[in-house]
């Protein structure tokens, strides 16, 4: 039987070359497949096209070089068209392989089908290549070997795809070794297919090759092999460079992501405590409310305000204050459950958002735990402080219709807690929000109180130590509520401050005080008036202009108006206050520090502030009659004030003993119920006409008044308004 066929021989060098090409092509193919997988969009399409070309050429050239290694005792040659066709088949096969490899998710079915397609494609390439020899008579095929070659092609394709998918998720260093091993296996498989396919071909004796030519095929084989290997090297280098570029891009992308995360932290977290800030809380609250609307689940807000924090901050400094806030934040975070949110929304204000509320009792338990946690002593570097918390609780949907109202009602309930003595919690209650023990005022009413002219100024005389000479009055605001009667400032000023109404109310007070001074001036009475300013008015950008306007409008001498600022308010932002006080001094109005002794003034600031007067807080005055300490404190305050060239006013004088002691201490002015309560205008005027008090500044004939035009502050006003423009 052997005799009836031509005996083929193989050129060992070319066989080796074909194996090398196969191995190299496989290695590059695996690399490309990985690339097509990791690249995205247009880049992936380029890699798919370029990769199919390079890989197809590699496979084909392995096959072609192997064909050239083969020789028969007759001269051989290859039909160009058929040869090109077999190359084309190899490119298509590669395209199939790479397309499958680029999918991020593949099923067994996919790999099976793709393996089959690839295997068949390789066979098609191989056998087209064989037909390119155009043997005459035709090749006699051995069916068994033919089948074996097809099976090897399919199994090898399937195996290489499997190896690829398995390898895809390896780490870089181990991947290279695996890729090398896989390339060797694939090369053997491809070569195995080729040589078993060759085994299937029998060339009958006397066959001739119609495509035979006189070309030296060894050289062509070397040329094709060399060119292919060079092309594969270029492909590999490009692919590696691109991989680097991609990983650089990945690094860039990840640092961009980090930057984004950092930005988000800044936007949504409180810088000091790392707790969510107001923005994030609002966002979570909105979502919680939306969920609650769908599910009917109850949610709650606990508004936590620290009692006494300001004192710590003022007396121990901002650094200590920060430390306290951090500690409190930590404690609150430890108390709450993962599903709850604790946020810091202002200086010493924290809010806890509770979703899925069981009942009010559970909320009260949580509130008590917060109270307990806050009131544990906090150890600082050199000090130990102890605070307490006032907590207001509001529940959705019972207490509010949206997130804004829920927060506002929790806030108001917190105010209730403060009003009932602090260190406690209060639930929102529509009835008690209006007045905690009759003290809380309804915010909405307050909004309209100005328009409805419900505010009124009472005036309390300030007397010389002799108790009869009236040196001026302090204007104290009252709210004549249509149903509640006369409401005192402590019951509505804090609310006005909290809800941003104080600036408007404060402007009205200044205007009204000036109007009243003018009315008295017109009667011939020069009565200096002191008005109280709230901290927020100190931050009002046009405060100086507003005061100037009022003074000018009523032709009041600036030195007849005193502004009372509370000690803690002034120290709140001492540097900024300093600048304001300088402008006020330039205007000519007087400045008094109110409630002196209750805050923590820094003496150095007092010296720098252009202050005219200190008002010793009533709490010291109350104790002077029977407490030695109080006496020595008051004595020290008076001495200190005098040494700074400040006048001293004692507030809250209620008894003769207090009055006598304070006079002996050389207080410059006394004020208190002992002399007079704050009085409505007509009552004050009545007493003045009855000569109960002597107006020391307004003795004798009616003063000749400056007209508005000639007022010295006119120029200032002009300057001020120019500046505003
Ligand atoms: P303040 O400026 O320290 O005013 C003194 C307070 O002590 C007044 O209370 C006055 O009625 C009260 N008082 C006077 N003499 C005695 C006394 O002998 N014994 C006792 N126990 N109290 C006495 P009032 O009018 O309730 O005002 C309370 C606070 O409200 C004021 O304290 C002031 O800080 C603030 N306030 C009053 N009017 C205004 C205003 O127009 N604007 C602002 N921002 N705050 C105001
Ligand atoms: Mg005052
Ligand atoms: Mg006071």
Approximate helicity band: 55-70%
Q: Indicate the overall shape.
A: rod-shaped
Mean pLDDT level: 83
**Helical segment tally?**
26
Q: Strand tally, please?
A: 23
| Oligomerization state | single chain
Describe the sheet with the most strands: 10 strands, mixed
Which cofactors or ions or other ligands sit in this model? ligand C2E, magnesium ion
Structural class: alpha/beta
User: Gap between N and C termini, in Å?
Assistant: 115 Å
Q: In angstroms, what is the radius of gyration?
A: 47 Å
| Strand content range | 5-15%
Uncertain residue ranges? 433-441, 698-725
Structural overview:
The model is unreliable at 433-441 and 698-725 (pLDDT under 50). Helix 18 runs antiparallel to helix 26. 58% of the residues lie in helices and 14% in strands. The chain has 26 helices and 23 strands. With 725 residues, it is α/β, with parallel strands linked by helices. The protein is rod-shaped and about 150 Å long. A hairpin with a 5-residue loop joins strand 14 and strand 15 (469-481). The strands form 6 sheets. Strands 14, 15, 16, 17, 18, 19, 20, 21, 22 and 23 form a 10-stranded mixed sheet that branches. Strands 8-9-7-12-13 form a 5-stranded mixed sheet, sandwiched between helices. Bound molecules: ligand C2E and magnesium ion (2 copies). One magnesium ion binds next to strand 19.
């Amino acid at each position: 039987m052997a005799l009836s066929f031509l005996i083929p021989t193989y050129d060992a060098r070319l066989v080796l070359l074909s194996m090398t090409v196969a191995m190299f092509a496989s290695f590059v193919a695996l690399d490309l497949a990985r690339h097509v997988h990791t690249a995205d969009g247009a880049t992936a399409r380029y890699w798919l096209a370029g990769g199919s070309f390079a890989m197809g050429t590699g496979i084909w050239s392995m096959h072609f070089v192997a064909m050239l290694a083969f020789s028969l005792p007759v001269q051989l040659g290859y039909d160009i068209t058929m040869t090109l066709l077999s190359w084309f088949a190899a490119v298509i096969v590669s395209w199939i392989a790479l397309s499958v490899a680029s999918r991020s998710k593949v099923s067994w079915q996919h790999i099976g089908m793709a393996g089959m397609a690839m295997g068949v494609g390789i066979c098609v390439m191989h056998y087209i290549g064989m037909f390119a020899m155009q043997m005459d008579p035709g090749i006699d095929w051995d069916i068994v070997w033919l089948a074996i070659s097809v099976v090897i092609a399919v199994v090898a394709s399937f195996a290489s795809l499997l190896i690829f998918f398995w390898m895809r998720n390896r780490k870089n260093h181990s991947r290279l070794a695996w890729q090398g091993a896989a390339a060797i296996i694939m090369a053997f498989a491809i070569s195995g297919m080729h040589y078993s396919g060759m085994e299937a071909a029998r060339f009958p004796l006397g066959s001739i090759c119609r495509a035979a030519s006189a070309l030296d095929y060894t050289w062509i084989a070397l040329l094709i092999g060399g060119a292919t290997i060079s092309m594969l090297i270029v492909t590999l280098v490009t692919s590696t460079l691109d991989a680097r570029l991609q990983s650089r891009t990945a690094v860039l992308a990840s640092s961009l992501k980090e930057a984004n995360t950092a930005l988000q932290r800044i936007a949504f977290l409180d810088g000091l405590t790392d707790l969510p800030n107001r923005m994030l809380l609002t966002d979570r609250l909105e979502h919680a409310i939306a969920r609650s609307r769908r599910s009917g689940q109850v949610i709650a807000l606990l508004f936590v305000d620290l009692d006494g924090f300001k004192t710590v901050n003022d007396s121990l400094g901002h650094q200590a204050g920060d430390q306290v806030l951090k500690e409190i934040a930590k404690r609150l975070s430890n108390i709450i459950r993962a599903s709850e949110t604790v946020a810091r929304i202002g200086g010493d204000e924290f809010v806890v958002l509770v979703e899925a509320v069981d009942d009010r009792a559970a909320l009260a338990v949580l509130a008590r735990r917060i109270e307990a946690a806050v009131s544990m002593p906090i150890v600082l570097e050199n000090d130990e402080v102890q605070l307490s918390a006032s907590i207001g609780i509001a529940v959705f949907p019972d207490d509010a219709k949206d997130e804004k109202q829920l927060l506002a009602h929790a806030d108001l309930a917190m105010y209730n807690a403060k009003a009932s003595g602090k260190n406690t919690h209060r639930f929102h209650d529509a009835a008690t929000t209006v007045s905690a023990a009759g003290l809380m005022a309804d915010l909405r009413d307050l909004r309209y109180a100005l328009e409805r002219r419900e505010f009124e100024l009472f005036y309390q005389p300030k007397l010389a130590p002799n108790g009869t000479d009236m040196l001026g009055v302090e204007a104290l605001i009252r709210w004549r509520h249509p149903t509640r009667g006369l409401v005192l400032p402590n019951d509505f000023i804090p609310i006005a401050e909290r809800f941003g109404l104080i600036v408007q109310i404060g402007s009205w007070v200044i205007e009204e005080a000036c109007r009243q001074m003018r009315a008295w001036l017109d009667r011939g009475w020069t009565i200096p008036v002191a008005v109280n300013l709230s901290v927020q008015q100190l931050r009002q950008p046009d405060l100086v202009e507003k005061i100037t306007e009022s003074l000018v409008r009523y032709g009041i001498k600036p030195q007849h108006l005193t502004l009372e600022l509370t000690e803690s308010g002034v120290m709140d932002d001492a540097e900024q206050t300093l600048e304001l006080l300088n402008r006020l001094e330039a205007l000519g109005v007087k400045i008094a520090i109110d409630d002196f002794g209750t805050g923590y003034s820094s003496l150095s600031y007092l010296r720098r502030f252009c202050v005219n007067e200190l008002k010793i807080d009533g709490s010291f005055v109350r104790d002077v009659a029977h407490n030695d300490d109080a006496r020595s404190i008051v004595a020290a305050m008076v001495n200190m004030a005098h040494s700074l060239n400040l006048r001293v006013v004692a507030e809250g004088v209620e008894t003769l003993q207090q009055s006598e002691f304070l006079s002996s201490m050389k207080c410059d002015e006394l004020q208190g119920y002992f002399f007079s309560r704050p009085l409505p205008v007509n009552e004050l005027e009545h007493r003045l006409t009855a000569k109960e008090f002597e107006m020391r500044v307004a003795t004798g004939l009616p003063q000749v008044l400056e007209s508005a035009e000639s007022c010295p502050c006119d120029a200032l006003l002009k300057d001020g308004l120019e500046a505003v423009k």
